[in-house]
Amino acid sequence: MDVTVNGQKRSLCGIRAHENALDWLRANRLTGSKEGCAEGECGACAVMVAQPDGTGGSRWTSVNSCLIPAAALDGGEVVTSEGLASDDALHPVQEKLAEAGGSQCGYCTPGFACSMAAEYYRGDRTPCEHPEDGEHGENGFDLHALSGNLCRCTGYRPIRDAAYDLGQPAADDALAARRDSAPPEPAATDYAADDGRFVRPASLADALAMIADDPDAVIVAGSTDWGVDVNIKGRRVPLVVAIDSLPELRGLTMDDSVIEIGAAVTLSEAERYLGGRVPLLAQLFPQFASRLIRNRATIGGNIGTGSPIGDAPPALLALDASVVLASARGERIVPLSEYFTGYRQTVRAGDELIRAIRIPLPLATETAFHKIAKRRFDDISSVAVAFAVDTENGIITRARIGLGGVAATPIRGLRTEDLLVGKPWTAQTAQAAAASLAGEGTPMSDHRASSEYRSIMLSQAVLKFFAQAAEHEEVGA
Amino acid sequence: MSALSERPENPVVGVREPHESAVGHVTGAALYTDDIATRSDALTAWPVQAPHAHARVISMNVEGALAVPGVVRVLTADDVPGINDAGVKGDEPLFPTEVMYYGHAVCWVLGETPEAARLGAAAVDVEYEPLPSLITVREAIEAESFQGPQRLTRRGDADAALAAAPRVFEGVTEFSGQEHFYLETMASLAYYDEGGTLYVQAGTQHPSETQEIVAHVLGLSNNEVAVQCIRMGGGFGGKEMQPHGLAAIAAIGTTLTGRPVRLRLNRTQDITITGKRHGFHVSWTAGFDDDGKILALKATLTADGGWSLDLSEAVLGRALCHLDNAYWIPDIEALGRISKTNKTSQTAFRGFGGPQGVFVIEDIMGRCAPELGIDPAELRRRNFYVAGQATPYGQPVRHPERMHEIWDQVLENASFGERSAEIAAFNATHPHTKRALAVTPIKFGISFNVAAFNQAGALVLVYKDGSVLINHGGTEMGQGLHTKMIQVAATALGVPRSAVRLAPTRTDKVPNTSATAASTGADLNGGAVKNACEQIRDRMAGVAATMLRANPSDVRFSQGKVTALGQHDTVTFDDVAQEAYLQRVQLSASGYYRTEGLHWDAEAWFGSPFKYFAYGAAATEVEVDGFTGAYRIRRVDIVHDVGDSLSPIIDIGQVEGGFVQGMGWLTLEDLRWDSSDGPGRGRLLTQAASTYKLPSFSEMPEEFNVTLYDRAHEDGVVYGSKAVGEPPLMLAFSAREALRQAAAAFGPAGTMCELASPATPENVFWALQRAAALADDARPDASEPSLARA
Fold first, then answer.
1. Alpha carbon of residue A72 to chain centroid
2. Can you give B43-91 as a three-state secondary structure string?
3. B18 contacts chain A (CB < 8 A)
4. Sequence ranges of the domains in chain A
5. B267 vs B760: CA distance, rounded Å
6. CATH number 3.10.20.30 is the correct assignment for the domain at A2-178
7. CATH code given to domain A189-245
8. Which of B21, B670, B690 sits opposite A41 (nearest CB)?
9. Could you say which of B233, B672, B700 has the minimum Cβ distance to residue A105?
10. Interface probe, candidates A153, A159, A383, chain B, greatest B C-beta count within 10 A
């Protein structure tokens, strides 16, 4: 078992099965990467890993090393802040950060440098002359690349300036050149230590056989949820099965009737591969956690955790998506609306794993995703509402509403959907739907929001959806 | 101009220098405490935290822990050789027998690895007898649970003035604390060095106090303990008092085991064990005349102190000294007291009570302006101090004209009038979105309120090759103090910045230092560094005079060259250093500085505790979504007074960072404690980065213009500069006031708007809904509800 770090092969022998990549790097004197939160929220641990770019080359991808099992690095290729600079010169992102006053205490800075470097090397980063969304530089730098990095000192302005001042990689930039060839093939790993066993099976068949034998095995893809359980809750299990590299779970296909997204496709990949093909998802992706998380977290994982506040399920419910469950016994397809059975409980049997998500086509004509949270970037929803509505001659013919954060599971706003169908899409209908939706679910009060606010946000989401649709129409007319 | 504030020609201070460790930061080569610990075979210390807000420890059985493979020892009260107390007031037992808050550490487990220590801690069996607890300030007030002395600031006759005032308002202002969330959690590493010194590397803003507390816990003299702070990953006041006990745990561990011991709190431990900014409960009555001049203020401020006093008295003191902010309040009576609650012991946090005092008066201004029918910006300006006036505690307000000039400048920079009109037009055509532009001032007193703390030391060494090594008593937590000190030394010695290196802060280099706090780091340590450098330079001038055949008083040092007036000959600084050695002239010096002119009578609450005031103003524009209460910070303009800047990149960084941190406290950061009667009573509910949200890129002002106030020379301070660490945090009130005004804009003109704190989207939503309800009531066709309401 070994991994290439900053161009140098290092053995992973002697790690604990539950050891995270950050602790392993630090134990190996690569202490540039820091632990700030141990739950993928602060990005102080960010490093770059070589990932497939979908066209045969590599993509430098920023990830939270605190959430990745060290064993999952097996066969991989990692660059840390220490590996960005050459012997005689800082890396361009480091130079810009240093010059601009982008570091004060410096603790978050190596992570920022890695997130920034990954965006610097993004192949499709193209200059745009007058970016207007306030989230892109003229050099094409997407500020969302830094949405998972927290700085407590600077107030971010100098970091943004540094990012927007970056040029393109030089002709002799080794990390840029590395993108032209494929990343290392994922290694099949079977590692046992005193604290448990970590397996990355070579094939889907192996994976299904393994979980059939041990239905209590924890299945992980990006491990962005599992990593938190390990780090914060101290969870330890006998067997972890990593399915992040199984080819059967890594595809994204589209025909006239359905889009199928492999369960181990990361959110970033899905965002890139779909390219705006599903407007509702295109609206969701930038609001889903942070770039660092989206680079690891998968659509399958977001459903697999069964969390009532995952952001993908409400959108997928509105899209009428189904879940493809695979086991050694075969495959079955379950509508997502029937998938969740209770708080973090689902119909998935112990020997099954989510192989793919299917979204039927055609898509609804009017869609919207409303996420209510304290913070715009990288926060967990208090409430999430997804709408998908079809109208014909001003009459609503079909309506699906997905809701998160208002019940023990993600739910559909069925009563309100019924109310809408057959009605004209008018302010009066919107008012009635708003009143109805407020009564769906049983929202609780907690540290994120009061139950009153959650309920009323359901109403407001309808009204906002209507107002925005009306605005579009006006613009169109 | 004083000798202290005068700059020579070609000074290195004032030059735009990046942070002295910037290259180390960006490459990851800069080491922090726990980075050093990973390079040793240190044992790890792990706390056993009590799951009760208040309880008696009935028994403790550590056998289970000792049975865990890799567990070396469990530290308990029996292991303390000296005094079992982590503070300076005798109210913070290091190993408590009475649990005072949820998460209180009752003992510590030492393990070969963090995993072993963690498992060991889980295996310690502690039996508790739960006791009644007080969680909220209101509960404490109800139960009359207070600690420390109460303080009264009084001038004139507030009751009489209120009785005579044409307009009187009263209210309650409540706001909660703030977690420091320094990215580097508390960390220390302790071992005995080759010479038998108990050496502690710690993330501490106050190495001398860490040293003293480690010594008293261990029963040692101060000269047997050395504390070093290489750098911190943020401090913000959180590492002023509270690292001491943690360092002492590591020190006991190494003393008992003979092994190095590291103690790094993980985030959950740090946020549940260490203190925060004080929340306050304030009831007030304010009287104005018809022109909006404030006539009188009467208030009772109750600070939420948590379980022990820590720095609460001083924090409360600064709150009382900043109730006036920039405003002349002729008659005032304000009582301050500290509640004792079963929570973490609240402590220093950037601003140190100042923000809490300012909160009260800015809340009053913001609430009362619409009632008075006066534009809030105009109301504020009308009440500014003018020459000849003094603060309620008797300190003459020097340079009040700076406040007026800064105010005018920020209004101009922000195109305040023009944009206010644009915003009004925007709001008139956007029923679901409202914008607002608000401007607020800050006047902040600089110096420790305790006069004795206003002293500092430095040690400067010039080597024979002319290279310079400086030490001083201040610590680096990201604020750029070391960068400034290098610039001060290079200026004072007349050498290039590259000739100066700075060594980590250590108590065996510079003793008896004050905390790096109260924004005074550069003022105090800069004075000491300059003093040391000048001693050496004066001696070297004598040597150079001989070399140049000139009078010593004619010798000039600049940019590494030494010249004499009216002469063409030049020698290098390096040559002079070499010659000085040969002539047996001392090339090192310890420097010292004390702030002159301070006096303070804490009993009478009267005096001049501050060397000077720092001034600033900010204009912030926000946009609020009426459907949700979510908002964006569209633009911020700031003009701030840092004197003659020692280091502009550093100072602007402090202004911007302070503003965003203040905005975090006022808008986003939400400390929620379980105040239910359930088993989790007293538990911090937002105890992780996932639930306690700091400002991220999405909260960064989309346009952020910071201007340093020009012609700002401050006489009597090192090279004419002013302190900058804390004051800009309070510029963030402009964001809160803009949110208040935007919420009010959903209602009819002149709507008075109460905005709960923090101004989260939810709280902004409730505020704008109340305003919108007034609009609906006022409309002729009130039967049709507006869309923004459900």
1. 18
2. EEEEEEECCCCCEEEEEEECHHHHCCCCEEEEECHHHCCCCCCCCCCCC
3. yes
4. 2-178, 189-245, 246-363, 365-477
5. 23
6. yes
7. 3.30.43.10
8. B690
9. B233
10. A153
Q: Which of A375, A429, A440, A474 to mutate to test the interface with B (most CBs of B within 10 A)?
A: A375
Query: pTM surpassing 0.90?
Result: yes
Give me the mean pLDDT over the B398-404 stretch.
97
B696–A378 C-beta distance less than 8 A: yes
Cβ-based contacts of B762 with chain A (< 8 Å): 374, 382, 449-450, 453
pLDDT(A143) > 70: yes
* Interface check B238 vs A, CB under 8 A: no
Mean pLDDT (chain B, rounded): 96
Rounded Cα distance between B357 and B321, Å, is 7
Structure confidence by residue, pLDDT tens digits, B238-256? 999 999 999 999 999 999 9
Can you give the pLDDT at residue B779?
Answer: 59
Is the CB of A152 less than 8 angstroms away from the CB of B653? no
CA distance A91 to chain B (A): 9
Chain mean position to CA B477: 11
Residue with tokens 């890993």: A49
Q: What is the pLDDT of residue B390?
A: 98
pLDDT in tens, B430-483: 999 999 999 999 999 999 988 899 999 999 999 999 999 999 999 999 999 999
B570: domain CATH number?
Answer: 3.30.365.10
CA pair distance B124, B121, nearest whole angstrom: 5
Check if B477 contacts A (Cβ < 8 Å): yes
Q: Do B22 and A98 touch (CB under 8 A)?
A: yes
Q: Which residue of B has its CA nearest to A372?
A: B628
Active site residues of B: 726
Please, are residues A326 and A306 in contact by the beta-carbon 8 Å criterion? no
User: How many residues in total does chain B contain?
Assistant: 790
- Residue B750 maps to a domain: yes
Each residue of A54-77: pLDDT tens digit? 999 999 999 999 999 999 999 999
